[in-house]
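Exercise 4. Each item below gives a protein and its sequence. For each, produce the structure-token representation.

Item: WD repeat-containing protein 89 (Amphibalanus amphitrite).
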Amino acid sequence: MHVGLDSGIARSQSQLAAVCSDFSLSLFDWGTLKKLHSMRGHTDKVTGVRYVPGSDSVLVSSSLDGTVRQWDTRSGQMTMEHSDTTLQKRKPLTCVDVNAAGRFLCAGTEVVDQDAYLVFWDVRQPTPLGGYWESHTDELSTVRFHPTDSGALATGSTDGYVNVFDVTQTSEDDALQATLNTESSVSSVTWYERRDGRHLAVVLDTEELQLWNLQESERTAQFGRQEVAQAIRRTMSEVCYVESCHQTAEGDVLAVAGATTKEGHGCLRLLRIDGDRLTPHALLEDSEVTQQLVRASAFSAATGELVTGGEGGILTLWRPGARPSSSQRRDAKAPTHKQRGKHKQKPY
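Answer:
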């Protein structure tokens, strides 16, 4: 079974969930990558997956079919379907997250009738609480709640903006706390803490990495492909990429970066962000794994373990000081067609 990793993977304390190209989800044991079972129900490409914080048994997934589905990972059964039909049709959903308290969901949408939406649900209710549609002008690519502050939400879009919200406020205008112009399409955002407050690490679709101080709404560092290539010891910057970032238990910020070539001479590394510098942290060595472009990763701050998944359909568990272990699967590719709406109407 091939894992469609454009949509990512998610981890809990003991499990790993991966999006598959046949619109299903596969569950694995985190420590062994042994497959537990599959869950089916979506009718279009799955675009995001998240465990409810603190739970191994509750998983949510978003899809272009316009639904967020909750799953019981013990039985493999869907327990609730969330959707938004306020425009008399479901909005295709492109990303999803659950807040730290495990009470609220947020999903981003494609552009629907000239608007890009952030839709919110109570995890116990199928219909939405409301939404935002004035802060982004193009498709949402990522939504991320703060790992401990349930009201703090960061969102990224192909419009090049990252917005930071306090969702405890009663209106979108009041909720919007900061707007960061990255000047490029946003791929992912990662919260991290420093002595001077909260920061975001932003990965762009141009394979660049930016760091932002949220207290000042200021970009503090920017690493282009050339800087990434130097950090991973590559000479051809055009084949280098950054997948995502993770924060360690010690507070370090690590970037998963690599390079691929047609000849199969790839590499994969963890880079540590030291102020305005990228420095090597770990070399991830496996000839079969490093030949594929890594599309998703999950990190355990408690153990330092990392799982990566790539275009080749291989999930790999990396442990500090140990040889990697992998699980390989194959089947058909995911569809790429996305439908957009035509009728414009404000829903909330």
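Check: Residues 44 and 158 are 21 Å apart (CA to CA).
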